[in-house]
Amino acid sequence: MRKLFAKDLKIKFIETLNELDEFSYEEGNPFLIKIGTDKYFVFLKNLSPAYFKNSPDVTRVQLPYSEHFLKIFKADIPFIILGYDVDTDTVVAWNPTKVKERLNAKSNVSLYSRSSLQENVKDDEFRFGYLSNGERIIVFKRENLTNFFDVVFDLFKENAVPKTTEPKQPATLTEITDKELLQIIKPLLKKNKVLQAVEETSKYYENKHNNMTFRDWHKLVSELYRKMNT
């Protein structure tokens, strides 16, 4: 299995959650994040083979003894460990309550998963897996992180069932700042071709802001047109 450098792993995590309106984060790993008024400590680790001769399917993350965990012990903030499989762009999560209890219990704590689960999860689902000790793990695609923090504690309830998710709608665009798009539509606006500029704008963002209507695009382009002519 391939691995990412710790810095690159965090960049992938941040880039995904930056789609949320009220997301912020601190430096380091583990690190504190905020989504709206909710706070979480997060620890990111690459998944790697466990090298069990009789169970080649097993993967794991290993948590070393760390002074950083002492702060997490004392804080009344959920601690979420996420294992990442770069080959399948998949994330594994373990029960936050049980994981917190195991921190610094020994020099290396191992948390297990299975490569077969990581390979077969669908884009819009949270898949359950069960380890030999009966412990539940949650497996999902990285892009589903934006939904994961909404449902993480529900997923680990005893009566929880696997679920699919509707992707969150991206935030409504309030201003056109993309340089590439501006190079396309500004020449049109200089020729007073407002409707054509609206069409180009809508086409440019069709896979990102599909919650916006023609009226929304027209309002944005008209505002830009007004600024260019004042």
Task: Report on this structure.
By secondary structure, the chain is α+β, with helices and mostly antiparallel strands. The chain folds into 2 domains: 6-164, 3-Layer(aba) Sandwich (Trna Endonuclease, Chain: A, domain 1); 179-228, no CATH class. Helices cover 35% and strands 26% of the residues. Helix 6 runs antiparallel to helix 7 and helix 7 packs across helix 8 (214-228). The model has no long low-confidence stretch (mean pLDDT 87).
What's the architecture of the largest domain, going by CATH? 3-Layer(aba) Sandwich
CATH class of the largest domain: Alpha Beta
Shape: elongated
The average pLDDT value, as a whole number, equals 87
Number of domains: 2
CATH topology (level 3) name of the largest domain = Trna Endonuclease, Chain: A, domain 1
Counting DSSP H or I runs of 4 or more residues, the number of helices is: 8
Which structural class is indicated by helix and strand composition? alpha+beta
**Share in β-strands:** 25-35%
Q: How many strands appear in the DSSP assignment?
A: 11
Instruction: Characterize the quaternary organization of these chains.
Output: single chain
Low-confidence stretches: none
Give me the strand/helix succession: HEEEEEHEEHEHEEHEHHH
Strand arrangement in the largest pleated sheet? 1-2-3-6-7-10-9-11
Sheet having the most strands: 8 strands, mixed
The CA-CA distance between the termini, in Å, is: 57 Å
Helical percentage: 25-40%
